[in-house]
Amino acid sequence: MSIIDFNNQSYPLEPRENVLQCLLRHGVNYPNSCQAGICQSCLIKAKDGVVHPSWQEGLPETLKSQGYFLACLAKPETALQVVAPESAECEVKAQILELKPLNHNVVQVKLGVEDPTPWIPGQYLSLINPEGTIRSYSIANIPSQEGVIELQIKIYPGGVMGQWLMDNAAKNPQVTLRGPFGHCFYHNPEHLDFNILLAGTGTGLAPLIAILKSALYQNHQGRITLVHGGLTDEDIYCKEELDALSTQFNTFIYDPCVVKSQGCYPEALIDRRVLTHINNPQDTRVYVCGPKEITNKLKTRIFLAGVPSKQIFSDPFI
Q1: CATH T-level assignment (fold) for domain 195-316
Q2: What range(s) does the FAD-binding FR-type domain occupy (predicted)?
Q3: What is the pTM of this model?
Q4: Tens-place pLDDT, residues 161-187
């Protein structure tokens, strides 16, 4: 039986149990959210013992090299000594500069940081408020150009982070950021003429806009298509900005759709709409973002349409 040593206490692991489950079972209130290796909330650091690379999925190389891993992915077979993340190594302070509604339930949040250059457009970060609440959000702009980090946050009824932002951010605007993480960013390619398909629903639009702007900024030559889906017309946002970009760049196609329309947008299921834009699957790179269930469905449909799995990138939302 493996032993986890944390805060000078030893905790035995049950068979097939991960580090996070072990800590929680023993009453340790360790930060966590998705418990699926996506949100990075359970980031932890090994002081002694073997860290398997599969436990570090999605982490930047700087954190991997320092022994960081995700507690929810780790099932050690030998003893492991771990500590909570050290803020100086993996966190920075940020200031909430602006809150602006984008539609009926999405708010644009602009954050000021000392150095915006490490924050990669399209990747996601963990936002930690002064009360210790942690949530993950995608970067929706190019911070190195604009000097700020933009997030697009959906406000859920009863949502802890959303309500804190609406009620308390103006009075206490300092937050902590951890990251960036994830696979959804414009990878520097050897050639610039392949097609790009961006697909997502709701605030899955945030990283897609960032990837789009990165590609246009780097003079991407292939066709870029962005399909944004919603349930109703009011779920679509950033339309004016995206319409302007499609007018300015003839290689960019913007195609919003909704399940039930009152006449503003085409009625279509996004997984079907996306397939109409796949004309050359072997030379198409696809980015899919949004809720996990929809993201997985889209990825399957796109793969079956002929796009190789290695050319499909996603960071599903939890």
Answers
A1: Rossmann fold (3.40.50)
A2: 89-187
A3: 0.83
A4: 999 999 988 888 999 999 888 878 987
